[in-house]
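Q: How do we represent a protein-ligand complex in a form that can be generated token by token?
A: Start from the inputs.
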Amino acid sequence: MFEYNMQRLTPEEFEKFSKLVYDESGIFMKDSKITLLSNRLRKRLQALDINSFAEYFDYIQKLSDKSHELDLLLDVVSTNETYFFRSERHFAALMQKCVPDIVAKKKDRKLTVWSAGCSTGEEPYTIAICLSELKDLLFGWDVEILATDIAYSVLDFARQGKYSGRRIDKVPPNLLEKYFDKSESEEDVYTVKKQLKDMVKFGTLNLFKDQFPRNIDLIFCRNVMIYFDREHQRTLVKNFYNALSKTNGYFFIGHSETLHSVSEDFAYMKIMDSPVYVPKERLNEFSSN
Ligand SMILES: C[S@@+](CC[C@H](N)C(=O)[O-])C[C@H]1O[C@@H](n2cnc3c(N)ncnc32)[C@H](O)[C@@H]1O
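Then emit the structure tokens for the protein with S-adenosylmethionine bound:
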């Protein structure tokens, strides 16, 4: 029986593991994260019945195909905090300005939304609720919500669509009743209805290793960039710019995040009292309104 709980990375081990995490995911960990990283890596030690961090590092190095173990390592290392209607003003902007604007402009009647770094699914399902509430406006439209994350376990959780507690605290009661099934056996447990599940396509996507989808109308990448250093943020935002429609695209980042000194490809807008970015090509369109 090993004393897993007692173990903490040495500064040298921290350097090795944090570099591995950075190289594989762009997630940058300051030295002050040593306890956090130790706690999270301990789960892999336990799962593999490995005795020390040093042994775990060697184990990874000796694997002929490291990809599976690296996926599992990133899965335990990533921070997945999220909840329904997080930064709710974003969703007011989405419903009252962005979607009506896209509907007025796009001829192909196809709306594609991407929740990049979707974690356990609360963000894409919130988007699905909002778009369902706009069903009259979107009648006859082909609506697709792509929801991606680097971590497998959060995507499994998301596909189940079963939520409770503070994850659903901010869902207005009428929407909770309309879009969720209340569990009969467990208290305060709600599962999103099939109609929402059918709107969202979940999949793994590493923002620094995998190809991006194209021609996206709305990109949500909120509370993800905070984990990356400036260089990775710049690369990421450039790739989002390339993925977004230049004629009607909108880009949402977290309320505590900024594109200042990260990108000049986007113009900052305040819509419904909420920060939203549009490709710089659209700036005239907004200033003339
Ligand atoms: C704090 S959650 C944000 C969830 C949601 N967007 C929100 O704002 O509530 C950050 C998510 O980013 C994901 N993530 C971190 N690095 C990533 C990468 N390189 N590629 C894809 N997803 C990543 C994490 O796995 C995590 O689920």
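The chain has a mean pLDDT of 95. The domain at 89-287 is CATH 3.40.50.150 (Rossmann fold).
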